[in-house]
Amino acid sequence: MANLTKLKKDISERLRRLEQKFQPTRRFEEPGTEEDEPPASPSNKISPTGSLVGSSSDAQATSWSGKGRKTFYANGRYWVFYGDGTNIVYRTSINGITWTDPTTVVACTLSHYFSIFFDGTYLHYANCFPGWVGQPMKYRRGLPNANGTITWSTGTEVTVYSHSQSGFQRPVIAVDTQGYPWIGCYDQYYNDLYATVMKSTTNDGTWSMASGFPDRYYSYHAAVPVPMTGTKMYIIYFRILSGWTWNIRGKYWNGSSLGDPEIPTSRLCSYGLLSVVNALDTVHLVFSESGTANIYHAKRDGTWTEQIISGAHGGNYLTLSVDPAKRLYLFWEDLPKIVYRKCIKNVWDSSDTELIDLDPLNPSCVNSVYKAYGYIIPVIWTKENGPYGVYLSGLI
Q1: Are strands 114-118 and 137-144 parallel, antiparallel or unpaired?
Q2: Which is nearest to 69 in space by CA: 216, 209, 171, 213?
Q3: How confident is the model at residue 385 (pLDDT cuts 50, 70, 90)?
Q4: Could you give the 3-state DSSP secondary structure of residue 132?
Q5: Contact, 53 vs 80, CB < 8 A?
Q6: Which of 17, 55, 58, 97 sits a CA distance of 20 to 30 A from 194?
Q7: What pLDDT, in 10s, does the model give residues 104-157?
Q8: Phi, then psi, of 388 in degrees rounded to 5
Q9: Distances from the Cα of 228 to the Cαs of 53, 179, 253, 254, 392, in angstroms?
Q10: Domain 2-395, CATH number (from 1.10.10.10, 3.60.21.10, 3.40.50.300, 2.120.10.10)
């Protein structure tokens, strides 16, 4: 009788997930809005062994882990964008196993030249290929359709910004909950290094640079915009120090102006090993500490505090996702596996859970969706040893 009761509960939960899976997404839902009775957090694997999405000649086809996103779920499909070594392409799948042929978006030889963001209705991307001094940053918005096509808002990419002495790398795009896009990037400006932030005053797929932007931070190397509620935004930016360590800084945009620099943590971060999301108006930053490889969780709900994620260690290719109930999901490479932990109401799982055992695939550039609309969390990575392959698993 107990087994029958459990079976009924399992069936009921699966039916509810299926109903949620095929509900249309809602535009500009406030990030992390807490629901009265949210469904159980995703725990089933999309693909137990990893699904081959496509091939690439780019060894980092799914970069930039946990910052420049490249996947989402919408309108009954998984969407994966990556660089095939020549172009930005995307493939879609209804079940996360069988994939469409690649659709070419635009020329781009290296995947760290572009990133995407899904706002609940529209896909947005930033592209700085070829990354040379004097070449522009570009932007495009599109509507992902249930049949796997994209209806673009403009006929071609629009120019965000161009300067004869600027060369851009590693763009990270985000969109506030009113639909206004932001881009953070590395900018080689007059032969010096800057973390640079750009903001648009239009939310219709065009771009008009806001007054006071681009905003540049001298001697810093990259910037990640993080959407909060309304038109508020938080900017995480960082500097490379000796030994390939980073110090982390932040600025808060209150909807009309940027505040003074903040220090999210006094600890140094191992090179590249951080990821950040927002849940309602709390910014969550995870990073691997240089020297110890301990993983920390810093959060800002007005002021910054931090905690160690007990027993979490290493953190290669950290990537953080959030679901609509404000639950956090942290994925990272712990060779030869990808593992994860959940954080519910500020309490992290006490141990790692294996997402997938990749031996001998040697994963790199593990990346995940920013926000899990529909409580579906795709996770992608690149097979490290060529010929390179792009793979997907995740939680549902």
Answers
A1: unpaired
A2: 171
A3: low
A4: coil
A5: yes
A6: 58
A7: 999 999 999 999 999 999 999 999 999 899 999 999 999 999 999 999 999 999
A8: -75, 140
A9: 32, 12, 9, 9, 28
A10: 2.120.10.10
